[in-house]
Amino acid sequence: MQKEPLLSEAKRKLLELQLKRGDSLPAASGQAETKRQPRDTPVPLSLAQEQVWRLDQTAGKLTPLHNESITIHRRGPVDSAIVKRSLAEIVRRHESWRTTFEVTAGHPVQIVHPAPYPLEFAVSDLRTLLDSERETTALDLATQDARLPFDLKQGPVFRVRLVTFHDDEHRLYLTAHQSIVDGITVFDIFPSELTSLYESYVSGKPSPLAELESQYADFACWQRRKLAGAIQERQLTYWQKQLAGDLPTLQWPNHGVRPERQTYRGAMYSFQFSSQLEQSLKDLGRREGATLFMILLAGLFTLLHRYTGQDDIIVGTLAPSGRKESAFQRCMGYFLNPVALRADFKGNPSFRSLLGQMRERTLGAISNDDVPLEMIAERVGLKANASRHPFFTVALSVAPDVASLPPGWSMTYMDVESGGARWDLYIEMSDRPEAMLGRAQYNPDLFTKDSIRQTIEDFRLILEEIAHL
């Protein structure tokens, strides 16, 4: 059997950055030029953003599956007026955060509103409560915000709440609709811009941030120009080959009855793997020429294979897509595109052989990650199934790095539950110095919390097993 080509150390590190941050790739020949799009006419949605919008018109009426939340923590004094001023400047800078959506001639379009844009900003002072009551009350308030649906036509499609615990302890809870955020937005751009603006304003200085070269609307138009003709056909041909034949249906969870229609309900389970395991997996990646994501993906495929005995399995992930273009790297918006990664266990492959598959699948996916799954489904003739996602029900991703924030500022994520979930199980890992943090978002109609806890423990054991290969 031919040995799978390894990634060099330099390429492995570059790919790790591209997967986590969406850094630039070399431009393809014939790639569309990025340019400023006129705002006097409605602008189309990006391809992936349009799929989010369409799902929101149906499943979004059942549960807020697209509501994303993060928490900015502040140790030190806070001036709520300066926080509001900082938020207003962010909204001015980023058109996507003052955009609503309408239907024109049967197609969804972006309506970019002029600045200043109305800013909803709730303030909750909990200093009069008992210490034992503050945490619960703050989480209740944040959860209420996270579970409220957004009106994509009326806007705004984000909400903010500043909660004061003590004179020197505050939290800013942000909930935004997925149509205007992605991992880079919430882990990097938003917290870094908010804290930079606040620190400058509180010191009596002007904004330190340079004006943006491009906006999300420019990306949407650029992407549609780019993904035409030969490029679109090349990418569709790649996926047609990868997803050829009868696509497998994951027989897990393998107990109980799946509802006839997806409920999109969600719950959260937080966990962490030790820094020792994290380092062992990174060492394995250096030896095998693989990224941390590839190793985690191979481990998850191994877990699902052991659970089901199936030899053909598909797992999803979120590709950085438009973030690979430098003009859009500092734009806030939804630049992710779900892709389907397929593993073949026929012949009982070794873990190294499976890891070789993951290298090949991952590299191929990020080179062909512009076409949405709905377009691929049409090409391969896959019919919709009301009870499950057409390609995969389990997804995995590695979160971007958290921005380096000024002293006194920090952030956490996925610690407020919206009550919605896009897939049966979505595992997001976060590579941190102190440990590898994880969040499992799951559908409680299919899993109990105990079953998810056991699944994560089984995942950890498999990673421990492979870390010393």
The overall strand count is: 14
Mean pLDDT: 92
What is the makeup of the main sheet? 5 strands, mixed
Helix share, percent: 25-40%
What global shape is seen? Answer: globular
Q: Runs with pLDDT <50, length 5+?
A: 21-30
Placed side by side, the strands forming the largest sheet appear as 5-6-7-2-12
Chain-wise SSE layout:
Blueprint: H1 9-21, E1 43-44, H2 47-58, E2 67-75, H3 80-93, E3 99-104, E4 107-112, E5 121-125, H4 131-147, E6 158-166, E7 169-177, H5 183-202, H6 216-226, H7 230-242, E8 267-273, H8 275-288, H9 292-308, E9 312-319, E10 337-344, H10 351-366, H11 373-380, E11 394-398, E12 409-413, E13 425-431, E14 436-442, H12 449-467
Parallel strand pairs: 5-6, 11-13
Antiparallel strand pairs: 1-4, 2-7, 2-12, 3-4, 6-7, 8-14, 9-10, 13-14
Describe the structure concisely for a colleague.
Helix 3 (80-93) packs across helix 5. The chain contains twelve helices and 14 strands.
Walk me through what this model shows.
The chain is α+β, with helices and mostly antiparallel strands. It has 12 helices and 14 strands. The protein has helices spanning 9-21, 47-58, 80-93, 131-147, 183-202, 216-226, 230-242, 275-288, 292-308, 351-366, 373-380, 449-467, and strands at residues 43-44, 67-75, 99-104, 107-112, 121-125, 158-166, 169-177, 267-273, 312-319, 337-344, 394-398, 409-413, 425-431, 436-442. It has a 5-stranded mixed sheet with strand order 5-6-7-2-12, with helices on both faces. The protein has a 4-stranded mixed sheet with strand order 8-14-13-11. Strands 1-4-3 form a 3-stranded antiparallel sheet. Strand 3 and strand 4 form a beta hairpin. Residues 21-30 have low confidence and may be disordered.
